[in-house]
Amino acid sequence: xxxxxxxxxxxxxxxxxxxxxxxxxxxxxxxxxxxxxxxxxxxxxxxxxxxxxxxxxxxxxxxxxxxxxxxxxxxxxxxxxxxxxxxxxxxxxxxxxxxxxxxxxxxxxxxxxxxxxxxxxxxxxxxxxxxxxxxxxxxxxxxxxxxxxxxxxxxxxxxxxxxxxxxxxxxxxxxxxxxxxxxxxxxxxxxxxxxxxxxxxxxxxxxxxxxxxxxxxxxxxxxxxxxxxxxxxxxxxxxxxxxxxxxxxxxxxxxxxxxxxxxxxxxxxxx
Length: 271
What we know:
Mean pLDDT: 75
Radius of gyration: 25 Å
Number of strands: 0
Low-confidence stretches: 230-252, 262-271
Helix content: over 70%
Number of helices: 11
Shape: elongated
């Protein structure tokens, strides 16, 4: 056990060294080895690997690791900070603000966290304003199109009074423009949300795919899966036996469910 702890510490230190040198992919390998050696119970390792994934613009994978770190240590501010950073880099500023706020509430003395909260709040407000701009632009385009159509087709004014024809046409096209503007806002929102969609392959499987020479025992892999929230159903055959690349979705989903639960409990304690 002591040898495993020493080896895990060495792997963690090597990961930190690679991280400082900007070798984020190599850092992933060493953090993954350290996670396996500690059976996934060290929240700082999940947080460090989340940071490496964030630097590699792997937002969904960074979020998954941050969620596991939070589930292991709900009152640790950095786990919430890592989650917020992944969401911010994905463009989900309103969601990032919530996680920054939790981190700041856990460590009110951290001025950097307070600054992150303020910036995320401004960016979230700007996103809302962007939606209104889309709607306004759509309405303006609708009005312009209405004027062009009315000017080009004089016969359209023959069956109805001119003022009614103009009002109906401009109103209908303005409404269509507003609907189109809000449609653009929703499309932008879902495009950003897709950046943090749960990966089909879990992070352990993903890293091992990059480094085929990694040797992680089946027992260690199972214990990491349990720590990540993939325990499966224990019917006498041990913990869940699904392969690593099939467990990513459930791991992240269960970890995020625990994060939501811990966040709710934290809110209740603050009230």
